[in-house]
Amino acid sequence: MSERIPFCLPDITEREIAEVVDTLRSGWLTTGPKTKRFEQEFAAYARAPHAVALNSCTAALHMALAAIGLEEGDEVITTPYTFVASAETIVYHKAKPVFVDVDPHTLCLDPAKLEAAITPRTRAIVPVDIAGHPAPLDEIVAIARAHGLKVVEDAAHATETWYKDRKVGSIADATAFSFYATKNLSTGEGGMLTCLDEELAARARIISLHGMSKDAWKRYDKGGSWFYEIVETGYKYNLTDVASSLGLVQLARIEDMRRRRLRLKDLLFRELGAEPDLFTLPATGEGHQHAWHLFQLRLNLEALSIDRARFIEEMAAREVAASVHFIPVHLHPWYRRTYGYTGGEYPVAEAEYAREISLPFFSSMTDDQALRVAEVCLEIGRSFRR
Ligand SMILES: *Cc1c(COP(=O)(O)O)cnc(C)c1O
Q1: Between 20 and 30 A from 70 (CA), which of 110, 154, 301, 356?
Q2: Structure confidence by residue, pLDDT tens digits, 132-146
Q3: Distance between CA atoms of 98 and 112, rounded to whole angstroms?
Q4: Which protein residue has the closest C-alpha to ligand 1 atom 5?
C-alpha cells in the first residue's frame, strides 16, 4: 500500500526558513522593512501601480470595498461559486451580495447574465478567478464602466494568472490576493491588495491600520514622529515582517512552483483523458496564463453508478484525500435564512458543485503522487461505470 496522499502540503524550503530566521534576529517582527519590500516586489510582479500587504485576502476584499466607499443598502454582484469570503466582505459593509450564475465550462461569473442583475443600488462587481482561471475581465470591466461600477477582483487563486497579455492585479480597480496556507504563494496567513488608483490604495492602507493618518511603523523609524491622527474608523489588518519574509522567498520561487503545477496538470490531463465519458477535465484557460491553484475534476454522474460523496469515500479508502470547491454560497444556512434562498436559484453553480472533486494538487507533489491520484480516479470510475 502506498503512503496516503494529502490534499495539500505547503512548499517550504530552507530559503524560506533562513529568511524567517533572519527576520527573527533582526529585532523587527511586525510590519516593517520586509513588508515594504514584499509590497514593492509583489507590485512589480503583478504589474500593479500600488500594493498594500494585509493579513488575509478577506481583509483585502474588506478594505477594497471600504476604500470604494461601499455603504449600507448598496448591492455588489459576485458569483455563488466561490469561498464565502467573496460574499461576506460585502455583508461586512451591510451591503447585499447579489449572485450571478457561472459559466459551466470555466466556473467563472457568466458575463451574459451580469447586466440583468444590475440595479440602481449596484456599486461594484466582485469576479472570482476560480482555480486560477481568469474571470472574463474584458466583458466585466466593460459592463462596469458602462454602469459606473467598480471592479474588485477576488484573485485568491490567481497570483500567477494573466488575462490575455495583462497580469491579474493590473486590470480591476482593486485586486485581492491570498497567501493562506493552501494557496500557491503562502505566508501561512496573508494577503495583498493591488490598486490602479493611488488614492484608493492610500485609503485602504489607512483604514487597514486603525484609520491612522500615517504608517505606524514609520513612527518608530529614525526621524519618525510620535504624532498621528485617527482620521477614520479602521481595522488591524497589517501583515507582519515574519509573514513577509516567507512571501519574499515564495515570490522569488513562484516561477519554479508554477512549472511544477503545470507538469502535474499535464500528467493528470494525460492520464484522466483516457476516460472522457467518466470525467470532465477543467477549462485550461486558452489564451491566458492559468495559475492552476486547484485541479477541479468533474464527474460525469450519468456515466457512474455512485455520487460525488461516495467517489470521495472510495478515494479515501485508497489513501487519497480530496476536497470540494465550492459549496455555492447561497446554499449555506446563513445565506438561506438572511436572503430567503431555497436552492435552485443558480442552477449552473449547483449542478457543477454536485459533481466537482478537487484532487490533491500542490507544487511539492511528486510525479508519482499525481500518477497515483489519476490511477485511483480511473480505478474507481471504471469499477462504478453504470
Ligand atoms: C482562500 C480564499 C479567500 C480568502 O483568503 P484568506 O487569505 O484566507 O482570507 C477568498 N476568496 C477565495 C475564492 C478563496 O479561495
Answers
A1: 110
A2: 999 999 999 999 999
A3: 15
A4: 57
